[in-house]
Amino acid sequence: MWTKTKDNSKEVLQLHGVLVDVSGVGVLILGRSGIGKSECALELIMRGHRLVADDMVWLERVEDRVYGFGSKQGQGFMEIRGLGIVNVEKLFGVSALKPRKRVHLVVELVDPEEALDRTGLEKHFFEVMGVRLPLKRIPVTPGRNLSAIVEVAARSFLLEERGYDAPREFKRLLEEAEEE
C-alpha cells in the first residue's frame, strides 16, 4: 500500500486514493479498488470543489502536518470506469484543480456490511507518517449520494475545529430531556 521514495531530498509516501479540496478541507478518499473513489471525486468537482490527485496520491510530512499532491504527469487526469481517462482541466477549467493540499480529513469508502458507529460519538483516526488524522468510514450502497456525504463530513470537520461537536450536542440534549 505504501511506497517510500525520495523526491527533492524529502521522504514521500505514495498511497492509492483520491485527494480533493472540499470547501478548504483537504479530504483524502480511500477504499478498495472499484468502490467509487474517483466517481465521488468527480461529483465533488461538479459541485465546485477541487481535485488535487486521483488514483495515486503522494504524501509528504511537514512538521506535524501531512500534505498531498499528484504526479506531474498525471496532474488533472482522472480514470472514470466506463469512460476511461478524462482531463479535468479541459472539462471544468483550471479552477477545478489544486496542485497541493494539506490533508485534514480521511474518508474511507467501505462495503455496507462493515460495522460502523451510527452516532458519530466514537472518534476514529488514520495514522500516516506519524500524524493522526480524523477518519470517517462511509458505507457505499446503491443510491447514496457520496459526494454530498463527503461534503457534509468536510463541513462537520470545520465545525469541530471551531469547537462544535453535533453528536455530543445531540447526546447532551437527549440526556437533558430524560432528566425532565
Care to describe what's here?
With 180 residues, the protein is α+β, with helices and mostly antiparallel strands. It has a single domain (3-179), classed as Rossmann fold. Helices cover 25% and strands 41% of the residues. The protein has 4 helices and 11 strands, in the order βββαββββαββββαα. The chain has helices spanning 37-46, 88-92, 146-161, 166-179; strands spanning 3-7, 10-22, 25-31, 50-62, 65-69, 77-80, 84-87, 100-102, 105-110, 124-128, 131-139. Strands 1, 2, 3, 4, 5, 8, 9, 10 and 11 form a 9-stranded mixed β-sheet that branches. β1 (3-7) and β2 form a beta hairpin. The longest helix has 16 residues, at 146-161. The N and C termini lie far apart (52 Å).
Kindly summarize this structure in a few lines.
With 180 residues, the chain is of the alpha+beta class. The chain has four helices and eleven strands; from the N terminus they run E-E-E-H-E-E-E-E-H-E-E-E-E-H-H.
